[in-house]
Amino acid sequence: MLFIGIDSGTQSTKTVVLDMETGAIIAHASEKYDVIDGLPAGHMEQHPDTWAAAVDATVASCLVQIGARKSEVRGIGVSGQQHGLVVLDANDQPVRAAKLWCDTSTAAECEALAGAFGGASGLIAKAGNAVPPGFTAPKILWLKNHEPDNFAKVQSVLLPHDYLNFHLTGVKRMEYGDASGTGLLNIRTRTWDRDLIDFINPRLHDMLPPLGSSLARHGELREELRQRWGLPAGIIVSAGGGDNMMGAIGTGNVTPGVVTVSLGTSGTLFACSDKPVIDPKGEVAAFCDSTDQWMPLVCTMNVTVLTEQVREIFGWEIPKLEQHLNAAPAGADGLAFLPYLNGERTPNLPNGTGVLYGLRTSNMTPAHIARAAVEGVTIGLAYGLTRFQELGLNPSEIRLTGGGSRSAAWRQTVADVFGVPVVTLSTAEGAGLGAAIQAAYVAMNESGKTTSMTELCAKLVTLDESTRVQPSAANHTLYAAQLERQMNLTRALQSGGWL
Which of 151, 277, 317, 334 could cross-link with 144 by S-S, CB 3.0 to 4.6 Å? Predict the structure, then answer.
């Protein structure tokens, strides 16, 4: 049996075909696109039709690659960027372009929501999460406040992956994982919070689609697409989920104890829990996952964005960066780099800036600056791990993904900073693989071949054991002190109005 996994993101859509018997990805296609140009500062938008066209093109390309084996395809799963707002009219056409997760134009709406429910702490007590600008709820309120004519046309509110599921099946439905990033879901009960919805507009109750299990099918592939692609009858489309939720499945992070860390432009750190994990400080996002469990998550805004800036300053190719990382010792001889170039989400420093601290003639070298940059962003993520531990989550292994994971020096730094073993995956297509695995789960259980998500991930998620590294006890002690120093410095500069 073959399963198609679709990963629709902000910059591209990537589609893979997974062979269930061998665990191999036997086809891959991608389609790039960009955000809409010319919008005011803080506004980030794309048209949903852009995603749908990219899905059609990449699926068609993958099917060409597998040739006659397309008769073996049994299901499709979709991963999508979280938090985006897709609004459809009475004819199921987009009313306007989608506002994306990175759209920050909704600050006033966030303040209004917080003000109505006792601030961030009141929102956390009520539904489990504060509501930052990236979430979907303030985007809906923004539409009502700023584009009332468009709001009046809205009949359906969907998330990006829901829209693609609708494109594939004609069915509107929302699963717990992606829904938990709207700001409207009570994380503890996995039900919509009526008060939050009423505050935006009572009509919103009718705009939201039915809500249900992440492990149930979403629908069946539309006949028009089935015939166009030459696929057999009865292709199921699974519930799908947000990119982080699908990335969790694709890295085998479906049981407590494993933590996934992504070293991309920004950084994410997330775990699996069999119960809701609510952070009263609001630094850990309380999400549901897409296996009907929960997924506490920490996000930082500055990871490879910082190392890429360092490379650009010194004119290095990636191998040269690696060479310089290895040339400086752990701790960079006292040089610390506060990595808040784009502001920061964790800790909450929306106007933060980068800071180099501790410069001396002995450590003012390219190698020390490179080492301090990598340590700074890794320690920033480690701050999130300390919040996990304070909330009762203790990892036994870090599964590392993203561009930074390709650096051996960086992998060792992560192991030393976190104090647990680190390993990467055999494929970089975590979210697409996760979507395909979820589709396989639904198809197999519907056909009577009962299986669990844990069993499927054990079979289909392959670790690259050649990348596994163990932490150095001495370096971990050094970095524990450096974490305290970095956070104390951050707090001191923030309280003094310098950060």
Answer: 151
Mean pLDDT of 184-209: 97
Q: Is the pLDDT of residue 428 over 80?
A: no
Count Cβ atoms below 10 Å from residue 68 Cβ, excluding itself. Answer: 7
DSSP 239-294: --EEHHHHHHHHTT--STTEEEEEESSSEEEEE-BSS----TTS-SEEEE-TTSSE
Residue whose tokens read 């990175």: 102
CATH of 245-425+462-499, one of 3.40.50.150, 3.30.420.40, 1.10.10.10, 3.40.50.300: 3.30.420.40
CA distances from 145 to 82, 96, 122, 151 (A): 23, 15, 23, 9
Pairing assessment for the beta strands 236-238 and 267-271 based on DSSP bridges: unpaired
- Determine the pLDDT at residue 402: 86
368 burial type by CB count under 10 A (0-12 exposed, 13-18 middle, 19+ buried): buried
Prediction pTM value: 0.91
- CA distances 273 to 278, 434, 456, Å, are 11, 18, 18
Half-sphere exposure of 466 toward its Cβ, with a 13 Å CA cutoff? 3
Instruction: Report angle CA 12, 16, 21 to the nearest 5 degrees.
Output: 165
**pLDDT beyond 90 at 173:** yes
Q: Three-class SS of residue 220?
A: strand
Q: Which fold has domain 2-244?
A: Nucleotidyltransferase; domain 5 (3.30.420)
Which residue in this structure is represented by tokens 């890295």? 251
Between 101 and 237, whose confidence is greater? 237
Question: Can you tell me the distance from the alpha carbon of 148 to that of 246, in angstroms, rounded to the nearest whole number?
Answer: 34
Residue 383, amino acid: Y
**Catalytic status, residue 195:** no
Instruction: Indicate which residue of 19, 56, 162, 243 is catalytic.
Output: 243
Query: Six-digit token pair at 456?
Result: 């499927």
